Amino acid sequence: MKGERPVTDTKPYTPKDTKFWQVTLSLALASFFIFASMYAVQPLFPVFVEEYDIGISAASLSLSFTIIGLIAGLIILGFFSDRHGRTVFMKAAVAGATIPFLIIPWTDSFVLLLLFRFIQGMALAGLPAAALAYLNEEMDRQSVHVATALYISSNALGGMAGRVLAGAVTDFFSWQTYFYILGAIGTTMFLLMLWLLPNSRFFEPSDLSFGHDLRAFSYHLKNPTLLLIFGLGIVFQTSFTGVWTFLPFHLQEEPFSLSLGSISLFYFAYGLGVVGSPLAGWFAGHFELPRVRIAGILLLCTGIFMMLSTSLWIVSLGLGLICLGFFTAHSLTASSVGELVSHHKGSASSLYLVSYYIGVVTGSSMLEPLYERWGWQGLMSFLAVLPLLYIAIVSTVTSSQKKAPE
User: What range(s) does the Major facilitator superfamily (MFS) profile domain occupy (predicted)?
Assistant: First the structure.
């Protein structure tokens, strides 16, 4: 017997089942920790610059290496998830993300810190590589959007908490203490997953070679509908990350002149992402998913346009709309991937997440020339129009294909 085997005499979990909420809670907690771990170093860049006597670009590698490890892990672990089961990799992801937090504080080498962050990135990829496929396999089709939305809303909560707490704990103690705290949290989350998360019942392992799986990746990449979904992930994340990357520079200047400590409080806007994802799942169950996704895109773009204001209240409201719209659109897009394929769901989900994190790299590392040339106003205008332009092009192409004679 290979990995988890399907059980044919049971039905998918529904909200009436206790295990539906066990699955939802355990994956939400794991997601919280994974994303807190991923972004925990972002507020610590100035500390690393001073402590290790390095430049800002070098300090930012503590996040970039994690993202690179994550992308590699999504591809590799997506393969293994399709053949050896879902739960083993999700549990291992939490354990693998925890251990580096207990080791890094003992080293004085920034190179070793980067190495462990890369390893950590590969390890934590086990959760997102398998979680969406697991939910689509184990949950009732009418209820999976709710569970997926709660899982993704925990992404937002974890990312927010990881950033906000990093500054607070480091100010009062040290970044090493913060890493130990994350290690303790990770250990707790791992034990909860062992207790709460049920084994797969409907997983069907692939007995095919890795070469076949690579061809399956290629097959997904030849699917026009999936390509549009992957492109959507890149566009969403580019606009979203672009705002947050350059916001501190903007708010430090006139007319705001805010300190970095004050600017860090704006990360609480991520809390609206916690609300937006479950609401998106509820609305998708009552209305058509594409319509709810379009509404999320419009909220995202409206919020970015509000960044052009010189009023701090309008900027604050705009950041809330950005998070609400982004996590609404993202949660529904992510959940739709599993419904568009019948085989190699782990690989398809991994490809979507790879595109999503390509957007992170694009939004954080490739927009500086636009910012230097056009300034804040030009960059925000570009980021607001980008999702609208993409949707318009996709709609035009799709409409043309439907009208084309056979």
Answer: 23-402
